[in-house]
């Protein structure tokens, strides 16, 4: 049995190539709609830097090489973060309105982790797919690399990340498209334009899922 039950817990997977704008759009949705946002990449970088972590080295190598970190590590980090977020506050409220909706950003990047997460943690309600060209993504990543300090925002890592995206992550999107769970959004436009369309499509899908 999964730890969390859909549809009480709403899990929205957020996918797209590296630099497509996933983190940026999740930030907008948090501000606007009060959803919770967990980025697999951020959780992995945090774990990589945590003193005493047994996974530091393997995470570091995978990130620079643009490879998928073993799913056991990533799924556990996401599940822990969700459990922590849903613990009752001191006032006894489990979560405020909208806070039981999770944006799981940069996950699942590979088919095995998709199936394992849905089996062990929670069924997904929908998948947002931010779609743009490799040229746009590359340009954004190189610009971000001027200030991000990230070990993988450089030409060599970007090429490898694109390969992983094409070979491993695209099949995940195709899998969910067949289940009619994918909201495709052109993320080449401005942050505001992308956000407005994303928000509209999410609420339409939530209404559809609940039969309204
Ligand atoms: P991802 O999480 O998909 O890797 P980010 O949200 O970090 O991507 O965005 C990558 C870079 O592109 C960031 O520097 C961000 O500020 C910038 N960016 C994001 N969305 C847009 C947009 N719609 N137009 C222009 N730049 C954007
Ligand atoms: P991101 O911050 O989403 O750009 O991810 C940076 C890197 O973290 C990726 O290139 C992978 O090496 C790793 N990573 C992020 N998300 C996942 C995931 N779902 N599964 C495995 N590795 C991941």
Question: How would you explain this protein's 3D organization?
Answer:
The protein is α/β, with parallel strands linked by helices. The chain has one domain (10-203): P-loop containing nucleotide triphosphate hydrolases (Rossmann fold, 3-Layer(aba) Sandwich), CATH 3.40.50. It has helices at residues 22-33, 40-49, 56-65, 71-85, 111-120, 134-148, 155-178, 191-209, and strands at residues 10-16, 36-39, 101-105, 126-131, 182-186. Helix 1 (22-33) packs across helix 8 and helix 2 (40-49) packs across helix 4. The mean pLDDT is 94. Adenosine monophosphate is lined by residues 18, 40-41, 44, 62-63, 66-69, 74, 106-109, 113, 152, 161. The site of adenosine-5'-diphosphate has 15 residues, from helix 1, helix 6 and helix 8.
Compact description:
The chain has 212 residues and is α/β, with parallel strands linked by helices. It is built from eight helices and five strands, in the order βαβαααβαβααβα.
